[in-house]
Amino acid sequence: MAKKIVLQGKVSIDALENIFNEIKTEIYAEKKVVLDCSSMSAVDTAGMQMFLVLAKEAFLGNIDLIIEGQIAKNVSNRMMQLGILSSMVSDGGTLKTALLSFIEEKTK
Amino acid sequence: MENFKQAFYEEATELLEQLEGRLLDLEQNPTDTDTIGAVFRIMHTIKGAAAMFGFTNISKFTHEIENVMESVRDGKVLVDNELITLTLKARDNINILLDNEEITPEMEATGNNILDLFRDYVKRFTVGGESSSSETPSVGEVVVADEDVMLSSEDGDISDTDDFNSKMVVKFEASNEIFLNGTNPVLLIEEVCDMGDNSVDLDISKLPSLDDYQIELCYLSWTIQLLTNKTSKDVKEVFIFLDETSKIEISEQKLSNEISATEVSSSPVVASASVENNSPSTSQAVVEQKKQDTAPKEEAKAPISSAKPKDLSSQTIRVASDKLDKLFDLVGELVTFNARLSQTSVELNNTNLITLAEQSDRLISEIRSISMSMRMLPIGSTFSKFQRLVRDLSGQLGKSIEIETEGADTELDKTVIDRLSDPLVHMIRNSVDHGIEMPDVREASGKSRTGIVKLSAEHKGSFVNITISDDGAGLNKGRILKKAVDNGILKEEQIPHMPDSEIFDLIFAPGFSTAAAVTDVSGRGVGMDVVRKEISALGGSVIIKSEEGKGSQFILKLPLTLAIIEGLLTKVGNNFYILPLVSVEECSMFTLSDVEEENNTSFLNWRDTIVPFVNLKDYFYGVNENTSNEQIVIVRDGDKHMGFVVDKVVGNMQTVIKPLGKLFRNVEMISGATIMGDGTMALILDLHKLAENISKNDKLR
Q1: Which of B143, B172, B192, B213 has the most A C-beta neighbours within 10 Å, making it the best mutation to test the interface with A?
Q2: Which among B189, B190, B218 is the nearest to A49, CB-wise?
Q3: B33-64 in b/e burial notation, b at 16+ Cβ within 10 A?
Q4: Higher pLDDT, B450 or B77
Q5: What is the nearest CA distance from B175 to chain A, expressed in angstroms?
Q6: pLDDT at residue B520 above 60?
Q7: Which is more confidently placed, B628 or B344?
Q8: In this complex, is the C-beta atom of B210 within 8 Å of any C-beta atom belonging to chain A?
Q9: Nearest beta carbon to residue B150 from set A78, A83, A108
């Protein structure tokens, strides 16, 4: 069973290396990654880009992406600002759906 | 990343200096729209850059002040003395935030207090009476670009009115390495979005697969459609600190369907980014409309856009001052080496070698002159600091004082300018505190109520004269003499026949102050002492002129540079000594019959002036060998002349000043050393200290 990766605090370029190594380990082992965003307070551009890479892989069917937990307003707001989301999301499931829709629209 | 932060620090420091000057200008002309615009732009640039480099405290604070300045620019808030004072305080606070990465609760409280004062001001002075939330600056209400909290339409900061001047398309293609530079593109995008109604379109076409993805690289680019009242210049300023490989293209269309500008930003150059390559967006219709309208102008502008940044970048280049110092050290070594080459060529009597040495000498002189000019800075930046000082001090003392400056373009060596600041502060404080009288006193003596402190600078040969003058009360000779006697600096019997210049010189004595009370401003008697020491250390001198009731003049005579000087090489005994050529008035011969003695001091009649002199061989080595003909070098120290008897005047020499080692730090009469062509060392005499020491020891003979 895939380990749940808990994203804590700000998911930014400084913290990304450890997080991404953990994610890659899970993906190589399970082809699946479970991200718990309930403790994630903020995200920078590099962090959002990682979400997009994972969402693209999920859209292409290469991995199984599960996003769990409440999504902080800051995170949702910032993703809107960056043009990823068109409306605010509050939970991980909705975020995943929105990310996949975004990828789908962009790869049409 | 540290390099970029350093670049921000330097840029922000410069901007804050400009801001101070602009605010003081604005105080004189409160309705000058250019100055108001400049103040706003400076705040805006600092805010944007601070947010970009993660200085969120600065960004937050500056944003709120920027809001007020925007209202001033829009004519909603009026400028008066109180607003200038508040903004100057805000400027100081930004400076503090810039200097301290860790913000203490006290600093935070100070910042909040300033913002409260702004809020209060805006409330009271909004044009048209009490401010309403939709019309007034949102000081305190706007939540700004915290790393975690952003400005957005949800925060109510994006205007929902349709009253926009222009429509812009901003294409931002981040370089791969943008994260490595410490830039978070989302902050830039937020700032652009903050300028009006917007729609952001993210292009992920370059996003790699999971296997190829490198977390530290950026693969994204954005197209922002913006309805705004800002200009393309304002938008461009958001990206001012962007690395050169990121690309920005800004197209602007006036909403009257007249295209005002289509331009490519300065450093990031984009040649052929076209609108139709954008990924689909909800506002594609708008984009296409713009494309049709702007196409001819885009084509016309293309060659200009690629040429303009090149022109700008070739005009100036920012170089770290330590690199210049290193360059100058090497030039110094080159000068020394060349002296050796010249000497060797003469010793060998080889014509070819002599020609080569002469050519090399010419080239090195040119290199020296160019590298010296690179270290020269206009003194204006130092002067502008004092406008603020005078403004604050006069307010504190209840005096009305204006500061005038002249010769701000006069250039001086960077080191001299850096070290000049403190002495000037002391002297200006003295002029403001002791010199200029209270307005009532001035009026009673027939002067205007407003006093004038004047700072001027001008080149005089290899020196720069900096004059601090005031039209105040002038120095009170009686009080100076009394104080000097009371403090044991002077004996009563020395007072008769004492020239004015010597009386004025007494104020440089340690602990001397005629001020009745010690104030925050001056009166502790340390100021002028420090001034004399610092100016002497710079190889300069201070001359005082004063007339009671009319005012005073303090003239600082400073060398242009401290690194390489023209020196007069002399020989005393078996050693070589250098006298700074700028102080040398004449070299001449005299016989014993020309000498007069009085009070154990030797004098010479030089061009109808009685000049005291000292035999350096006697003074340094205790050897007194009077010969029939003596060689003497007459020098000037301030407004006095003095003679030094030497064994031989060798000639002039480009002198690269080398500091003395730690062991010799306390040798006051020697200011440094230099290496001559044959490797021999020559000591550089500090003529002022030498004269002072000789007088003290009563050794003049």
Answers
A1: B213
A2: B218
A3: eebbebbbbbbbbbbbbbbbbbbbbbbbbbbb
A4: B450
A5: 13
A6: no
A7: B344
A8: yes
A9: A78
Backbone φ, ψ for residue B435 (5° rounding): -75, -65
Is the pLDDT higher at B354 or at B270?
B354
Query: pLDDT tens, B630-682?
Result: 899 999 877 778 899 999 998 888 788 777 777 776 777 888 888 887 778 89
Q: What is the pTM of this model?
A: 0.52
Q: Count CB-CB contacts under 10 A for residue B74.
A: 14
> Could you tell me which of B96, B1, B81, B95 has the C-alpha nearest to residue B42?
B95
Report how far residue B301's alpha carbon sits from residue A76's, in angstroms, rounded to the nearest whole number. Answer: 40
Q: Residue B91: helix, strand or coil by DSSP?
A: helix
pLDDT(B265) > 70: no
pLDDT tens digits for range B421-431? 888 888 888 88
Nearest to B306, CA basis, from B256, B271, B276: B271
Q: How far is CA B633 from CA B56, B112, B652, in A?
A: 62, 64, 13
Closest approach of A75 to chain B, Cα-based (Å): 8
Strand ranges inside chain A, DSSP E = 4-6, 9-11, 32-36, 40-43, 64-68
Query: How far is B234 from B525, CA to CA, in rounded Å?
Result: 50
Mapping DSSP to helix (H, G, I), strand (E, B) and coil, where does residue B412 land?
strand
Chain B, nearest residue to A53 by Cα: B210
- Reported confidence tier of residue B128, pLDDT bands at 50, 70, 90: low
- Residues of chain B with Cβ-Cβ distance to A106 below 8 Å are 202-205, 279
Summarize the confidence of residues B74-96 as an average pLDDT.
87
* Token pair in block for residue B356: 């080569």
Q: Looking at the complex, report in whole angstroms how far the Cα of residue B170 sits from the nearest Cα belonging to chain A.
A: 13
Q: Do B213 and A53 touch (CB under 8 A)?
A: yes
To the nearest whole Å, the CA of A33 is away from the closest chain B CA by 13
- B569-579 pLDDT, tens per residue? 999 988 999 99
Please indicate whether, in this complex, the C-beta atoms of A78 and B186 are within 8 angstroms of each other: yes
List B residues 116-155 in contact with A (Cβ-Cβ < 8 A): 147-150, 152, 154
Q: Chain B residues with CB inside 8 Å of A53's CB?
A: 207-210, 213
- Residue A86 C-alpha, separation from nearest chain B C-alpha, in angstroms: 10
Does B189 contact A27 at a Cβ distance shorter than 8 Å?
Answer: no
Pairing assessment for the beta strands A64-68 and A32-36 based on DSSP bridges: parallel
Helices B380-397 and B2-28 pack at an angle, to 10 degrees, of: 60
pLDDT band at B527 (very low <50, low <70, confident <90, very high): low
* Location of structure tokens 């702004």: B118
Is ipTM strictly over 0.85? yes
* From A10, A81, A105, residue closest to B147, measured CB to CB: A10
Q: Measured between CA atoms, how close is A44 to chain B, in angstroms?
A: 7
Q: Cβ contacts (< 8 Å) between B148 and chain A: which residues?
A: 10, 41-42, 74
Inter-chain contacts counted by CB atoms under 8 A, chains A and B: 89
Mean pLDDT of chain B: 77
Contacts of B418 (CB under 8 A, 6+ apart): none
Interface of B with A in 152-191 (CB under 8 A): 152, 154, 174, 179, 184-186, 189-190
Which whole number is the average pLDDT over B439-453? 92
Tens digits of residue pLDDT in B132-161: 333 333 443 333 333 333 323 333 333 444
Which residues have a Cβ under 8 Å from the Cβ of B197 and sit 6 or more positions away? Answer: B158, B159, B160, B164, B226, B227, B228
User: How far is CA B118 from its chain centroid?
Assistant: 29
